[in-house]
């Protein structure tokens, strides 16, 4: 039985998330608790082999200093535990890890993927809706014959090219944004549009192969307010975990 | 063991190829050198072999019925060298202020964790609500799309991802060479 054509136009939108690459910094309570746990663990522990060796060697050194003469010939070199510790300390200081706050952070370059490595970044593109240019999650109109998930995949491929590797989390949409067209273009069978959002995790690390045609940005959840309209933002925030 | 005897028994009766004693497989009885006395050994052989096989099978059953040996859990057994008295750490006892500070910190921590847990549960709740709303609207639109949406995604699990580290990876880092020798003891029952 043929259903009457609905007056809502359907869109599929993709929320592509770049997952964090470094751990978030600890809160004040977490730091205090971590220090306390370390202290308690130290108090409840026993001496390790290395520590016993260190204590014994310190005892011997002390005894040798107090007694005026040397028991063994001074030419004999014995590696002390303290020397080993110093050597390890030196080795650690010579290693330089990559900085947690990258250059992109300092320049606030919002098109780069290396910014804010400790939080989720999502893709925003500038699209023309009606006669306005808006910042939106990439969306494309649904065509009969495809599922909404493939609409969202098409939207992603349109803006980032075919070689993008993303894991889409399931067949079901995560959120919906419904809006009615302004009275000027509203007709009987074209009342408004429903945008269904899908979520995906970005798997590939660099997007140098992607052909980004339009203006794009990678923003974190707290920066979304700078770009999205309030109603749209409210619906999008509901399905985004911090 | 019994299968070996069985196969050796079989080998004796099957003629080997290229032997000058027989011309065809069917004529093997006639070509073997025959004595005047008919051989009665075959029945006794068969009985003896049968008895041997039964004894073997009984022995195997007895061994299998015996309970398997317990595998010791190495984590639960403290090696003796760590219960020496000189190993005990000697630290000054905690002051009153220190114990007070610890107790207050534990209370603050439990409150912090409770708030964190509540926030997480609320976030999950809004997530499921948003999804249910989206599915409801989709159902209103078209039943076919709704059915496609609630179908299970087979390719999603198993999902693997390397967790975040403390610092981002260095671009040209050459890790030092090293060999890892696995010395875990493997027990078989």
From TrEMBL, chain A:
Protein name stated in the entry: Large ribosomal subunit protein mL46
The gene that this protein is the product of is: Mrpl46
Q: Report which superkingdom the organism of origin falls in.
A: Eukaryota
- Pfam families attached to this UniProt entry: MRP-L46
What are its GO cellular component terms? mitochondrial inner membrane; mitochondrial large ribosomal subunit
Query: What keywords tag this UniProt record?
Result: Coiled coil, Mitochondrion, Ribonucleoprotein, Ribosomal protein, Signal, Transit peptide
Q: Which GO terms describe its molecular function?
A: structural constituent of ribosome
Q: What is its main location?
A: mitochondrion
Q: Which residues form a coiled coil?
A: 19-46
On whether Membrane is a keyword of this UniProt record, the answer is: no
**Which family, according to UniProt?**
Belongs to the mitochondrion-specific ribosomal protein mL46 family.
InterPro entries for the chain: NUDIX_hydrolase-like_dom_sf (IPR015797), Ribosomal_mL46 (IPR040008), Ribosomal_mL46_N (IPR021757), Ribosomal_mL46_NUDIX (IPR033650)
Question: Which CDD domains does the UniProt record give?
Answer: NUDIX_MRP_L46 (cd04661)
Compartment(s) where it occurs, according to its Swiss-Prot or TrEMBL record: Mitochondrion
Residues in the signal sequence? 1-25
* Naturally occurring in which organism (per UniProt): Nyctibius grandis (Great potoo)
Positions of the Large ribosomal subunit protein mL46 N-terminal domain? 8-105
Automatic annotation (TrEMBL), chain B:
Q: Which InterPro entries match?
A: Ribosomal_mL40, Ribosomal_mL40_metazoa/plant
Organism encoding this protein? Nyctibius grandis (Great potoo)
Q: Which residues form a coiled coil?
A: 39-66
Any one GO CC term of this protein is: mitochondrial large ribosomal subunit
Give its localization: Mitochondrion
What UniProt keywords are attached to this protein's entry? Coiled coil, Mitochondrion, Ribonucleoprotein, Ribosomal protein, Transit peptide
Q: What is this protein called?
A: Large ribosomal subunit protein mL40
Disordered: region residues: 157-178
Its main subcellular localisation, reduced to a broad class, is: mitochondrion
Give yes or no: UniProt keyword Coiled coil.
Answer: yes
Pfam families documented for this protein: MRP-L28 (PF09812)
Similarity-based family: Belongs to the mitochondrion-specific ribosomal protein mL40 family.
Keyword Transport included in the entry's annotation: no
């Amino acid at each position: 039985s043929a259903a009457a054509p609905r007056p809502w136009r359907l869109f599929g939108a993709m929320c592509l998330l770049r997952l964090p690459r470094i751990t978030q910094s600890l809160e004040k309570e977490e730091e205090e608790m971590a220090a306390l746990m370390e202290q308690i663990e130290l108090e409840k522990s026993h001496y390790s082999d290395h520590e016993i060796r260190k204590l014994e060697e310190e005892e011997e050194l002390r005894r040798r200093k107090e007694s005026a003469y040397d028991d063994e010939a001074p030419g004999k070199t014995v590696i002390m535990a303290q020397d080993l510790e110093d050597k390890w300390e030196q080795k650690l200081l010579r290693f330089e890890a990559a900085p947690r706050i990258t250059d992109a952070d300092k320049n606030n370059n919002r098109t780069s993927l290396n910014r804010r490595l400790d939080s989720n970044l999502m893709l925003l593109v500038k699209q023309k809706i009606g006669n306005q240019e808006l910042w939106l999650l990439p969306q494309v109109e649904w065509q009969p014959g495809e599922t909404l998930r493939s609409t969202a995949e098409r939207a992603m491929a349109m803006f980032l090219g075919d070689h993008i590797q993303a894991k889409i989390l399931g067949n079901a949409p995560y959120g919906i944004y419904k809006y009615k067209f302004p009275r000027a273009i509203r007709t009987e069978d074209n009342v408004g549009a429903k945008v269904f959002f899908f979520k995906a995790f970005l798997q590939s690390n660099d997007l140098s192969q992607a052909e980004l045609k339009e203006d794009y940005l990678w923003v974190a959840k707290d920066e979304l307010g700078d770009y999205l309209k309030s109603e749209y933002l409210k619906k999008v925030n509901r399905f985004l975990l911090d | 063991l019994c299968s070996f005897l069985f196969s050796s028994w079989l080998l004796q009766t099957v003629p080997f190829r290229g032997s000058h004693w027989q011309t065809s497989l069917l004529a093997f009885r006639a070509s073997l050198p025959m004595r005047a006395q008919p051989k009665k050994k075959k029945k006794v052989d068969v009985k003896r072999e049968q008895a041997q096989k039964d004894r073997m099978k009984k022995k195997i059953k007895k061994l299998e019925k015996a309970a398997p040996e317990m595998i010791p859990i190495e984590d639960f057994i403290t090696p003796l060298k760590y219960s020496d008295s000189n190993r005990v750490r000697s630290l000054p006892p905690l002051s009153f202020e220190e114990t007070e500070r610890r107790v207050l910190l534990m209370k603050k921590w439990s409150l912090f964790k409770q708030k964190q847990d509540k926030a997480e549960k609320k976030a999950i709740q809004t997530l499921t609500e948003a999804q249910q709303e989206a599915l409801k609207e989709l159902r209103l639109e078209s039943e076919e799309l709704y059915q496609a949406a609630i179908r299970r995604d087979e390719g999603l699990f198993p999902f693997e991802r390397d967790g975040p580290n403390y610092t981002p990876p260095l671009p040209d880092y050459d890790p030092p060479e090293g060999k890892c020798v696995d010395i875990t003891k493997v027990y078989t029952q």
